[in-house]
């Protein structure tokens, strides 16, 4: 019997550097390896969306649309894949439907093939328009289940959610485990459930992070259950808060009834490339290698460090344990949302407020909106007392409709706003960039001409750092004032490298 | 149905620090956590043997027998486990049978419960006396299969090897994957084969390193195949060239038909303890996180770095690729030994010689001995031409008997040797220490009174290093001479911290 072919989505160009190095990788560190990636035999190459759009204009003075066009050119044989936050697109608010249409059209025109569409609350109403937009432009619409764990989340519930995504016309279902909480057995059960309910030919893609150390096993059981495609990152861009190593997946399947068909020689070339690149961004890396605490607290690593810095800013760095015990309370009151951007920040910040000021003495504006339904529906009932309190505090009414239904058409206004900006080129892409990040785009437009600016260290800088570490503290590299004795007389002198 | 209980051997106290930090962990960094380890519910605690004996006297001025007695006292409810290199004991030559008996007796008297006995060549004749000695003192004799990959190694072959170990009276079989080469499917097949051939109640322990990133999946499939006990290291002492994280194993099994029964609260305490300890030994750590090259080259990481430093010493650091291609040639000529101490060094060094001087222009003394049978038999036929060459070069005859059969009784002589040493206390333990490491023990005996010396950094040193890194190079911490201009006049001055 021929082994069944398992597709692989390589995430090195998007989620891997987003998870490992705060999305800082410059395009110049990716272009040189695209040919090998293009020919390695991946099912798709995730290379855009998520936080990369924001990071491009905020940190790298790089036009994200240009990045997409470059990938399209350099990866002619690959399906390009992006992560899209449903009605939020790549921004942090809901957009009116026509803006969603426009964004999807532009992405497709610039080269995107596969749209992985998700909503942080798993509210299908926040996905359906984006899914329809992708179908309209004839591209691959991947409906996403954000995996989380709570007393209300069940295998059956996830299987039903997959059904709703298929009803939207999803070409495939992504099981997205952003916090590395998905254990092997539930993965097996959910995937079996989807396949048995909706047919064995229902395509299922599995996306796991590796933070808890168990999810390569999860991918194995997912494959045994019938998963069609899994996400991995080349080993030199893997592990920790990132993903499982691509080469390990390939080797793991040897001798089984499954194979990836990936070209190991290419993988080694890709690995060696990023082995050189990764140290350039060391300053952005988290120290976490494996953390099974997440299973107990259900608090993803990024959320924890956020809360810690909030507490420290308030001089309460020692109260993190209280906050960690408060998070489950807040999450329950909010109806058990998955903890992923932006719900993780909303729940986490409210937990910090509760600990510092007393439970629900003050609601953050975002938490109040969450309680009033402005982010959509959660799986569980929200605490009615808190809904009342949110109402009073914000003078806003709770809503039950799809949040985006409250929005008026805004595209024309967005066009006008962009037209007024210095450096904007009048393209729809620029309108969209400004629509998504109105606080950042205007500045970016004025500096765009200067071209991309890498924040990675150069080879020379890394070499100099190494040298400095070797020399230890015996060299002066910045001006410094010393008390020095010359010929028995003590003087204060300033020393600096000549 | 109740889930099947999977035993866990915690390796933090032995193989984890041997693999991650060159066996340097001082006893003072272990004693404080023994109570939690003792009560966590492990099947056994590996804490002695392997390279720890050597490291104790060579680097830590610590009596290894005292270390064993301390563990016995601090882990009263645990089965203590050690790794024993068959007829080599913990040293690097074959010992006469009575010395083997004596070593096992002393280890048992001092507190050892489970002896994992292996031979680098998988030659059963090198194990049988040690196994019998363990049975004689009424302890647990674990017979070991060293897993490797070659055209001659088959699932059936490993199953037969297990049979030979069971014939020796093995209480359990260890499947030992020191190079992280054991993929999920072969693990499944070998374990199924053993269980089906010799009975489902044949106890199988699985030991995997994590270097290639796939072996937690291997443990999953091993468990599904019926493995009874698996080896892991607490997460803060895991991964890279080490082992899979204990907590990840626990979590991985949730919802399956298997459970470890480990106490997660204790595990967290143990994890937090070693989280503090590990940075103290950072200078000994390898940079390798995951490396699937091993599957292609079959050269374990430790062996590679050895060969690299040999090449560099000869000014041929750029010829490592040639050596890596030469290793399979040498391994084939030697009859496909597993690559593990000492065969990895013997094969690796010969490959270096071949590249530098021409293939087999010179045989190393050890490679000649290997070819002549002085280390035992390999699975494959050895190259007859090279046997001839080894004969000529060494003036030694090839042997086919058990190597230790050539040895005369030596215990009395070893007693006399030790008696002559300053600082030796007349105990059999001291005789054994000197017998195992005659080049190191005499020095150790003279300094033993000074007590153990940790090579780990203190908290204060780590703090100071951090501070220094923060201050960067702007501070002078050691006297240094500069050319300095004061008031327009240039002078040479010496600067030092005031």
TrEMBL record, chains A, B:
Q: Which UniProt keywords apply?
A: Transferase
Task: Report the residue ranges that make up the Pyruvate carboxyltransferase domain in this protein.
Answer: 6-268
Give the Gene Ontology MF terms in alphabetical order: methylmalonyl-CoA carboxytransferase activity; pyruvate carboxylase activity
Question: Where on the tree of life does the source sit, at the highest rank?
Answer: Bacteria
Q: Where is this region: Disordered?
A: 447-475
**An example of a Gene Ontology BP annotation on this entry?**
gluconeogenesis
Q: Where is the composition biased (Basic and acidic residues)?
A: 447-469
Keyword Lipid metabolism present in the record's keywords: the answer is no
A GO term from the CC aspect: cytoplasm
Q: Which Pfam families match?
A: HMGL-like (PF00682), PYC_OADA (PF02436)
Give its E.C. classification number: 2.1.3.1
What this protein is called in its record is: Methylmalonyl-CoA carboxytransferase subunit 5S
What organism is recorded for this protein?
A: Corynebacterium antarcticum
